Amino acid sequence: MACKNCNRKNKGTKFNKAGKMRPTVKITPDLVVFPELIKRRDTNKAPQKLILKDSLSPGDILMLTATVRDLHHCHPNKFITDVKTTCDEIWENNPLITPLDEKDPDVKVLKMEYPLIHRSNTSPYHFIHGYAMFLEDELDIRIRLTDFKGDIYVSDEEKSWISQVEEMDVKDDFWIIVSGGKYDFSAKWVNPDVMQEVVDHFKGKITFVQTGQKEHWHPKLKNVVDLIGKTSLREFIRLIYHSVGVLCPITFAMHAAAAVPIKKDGLKNRPCVVLAGGREPAQWEEYPHHRFLSTNGALKCCDNGGCWVSRCQKVNDGDEKDTKNICLEPVKVRENLEIPHCLDMIKSKHIIEAIEMYYEGGVLKYNKSTSDIDNTISPSNNIILP
């Protein structure tokens, strides 16, 4: 690439979206490994005040936490950040957040986006890169990603509390199970009968706690601890903190499984089995320590990434997603339920094998005296356990 002001070539120089050259520095071995050590000349300049706004879902907001973390990691004392999002509970205890006033003339307000998603099917990027690359362009800086997960903080006080499950006299290690989802994305729904087969297979070995928002579609399972509609977002985060595993489709729980600190001693990464199917490209969603059950490349509708459709089961709510953004290969699994072919291909045996891998490898051990849950336990329907 030739410099605009001379004929000398600059191999490492890149231009931002405004056509301006990014600041260049003398590259030394330590800066190659730790680019955050790069010092700008304006070291005495006051930190820039930022308010980052986002109105998307919890999973999206969780990805934004990683961008805020790495913005401060790479540019210490250069920014003061506040956020205005739909999920304040995700930001609780976050030391990188400082309340700012949008009316302050020194505050820069940014509506956060991740246009990288439009290249997700063919580009080698994860969701975690989306907001970071957008903010790089907006601020004309570099943001080096650090941890491959979001950034959620659980306070010492929260850690001292017993879980909602233990409050119900169930003291076993437990997995969180999500067998449904939001109505606007029924293309993510899985077969609840398959999930029940998984629960039944591990009866006496693994305790499952079923969660989900009451206003969403979550068919109740048997032989589980029922917390559907009984947790706020913050309570759900604390529940994940206490859990040793998560079983779910692609949803907030999957991202939280990676981001939320782990209570269990010796467990470095929380096990998670994700029923992904073919809606989204694997590299965009998968975390290294998860068992990600993807069918990308197995069906024509997702043979070049994900199909990204919104619905399979029609909801009849008047939304055009029922007709214009619907699965091409629905499979009827119940009288009033159709799920995508890609998710129907994931059988209980595949899920069971994925869960068993964590136990066979020794990362987890089956409960020695798992409570005999013969019915669904809920806070309003406590069962006296032997």
CATH class assignment of the largest domain = Alpha Beta
Give average pLDDT, whole number: 89
Provide the CATH topology of the largest domain.
Answer: Rossmann fold
Give the neighbour order of strands across the main sheet: 6-5-4-7-8-9
Secondary structure tally, helices: 12
Q: What is the CATH architecture descriptor of the largest domain?
A: 3-Layer(aba) Sandwich
Overall form:
globular
State the domain count.
2
N- and C-termini, Cα separation: 74 Å
Portion of residues in beta strands equals 5-15%
What's the SSE blueprint?
Layout: H1 29-33, E1 48-54, H2 58-74, E2 79-85, E3 107-111, H3 127-139, H4 156-160, H5 164-167, E4 174-177, H6 192-201, E5 207-212, E6 225-228, H7 233-242, E7 245-249, H8 252-259, E8 272-277, H9 282-285, E9 291-294, H10 321-324, E10 330-334, E11 337-340, H11 341-344, H12 348-360
Parallel strand pairs: 1-2, 1-3, 4-5, 4-7, 5-6, 7-8, 8-9
Antiparallel strand pairs: 10-11
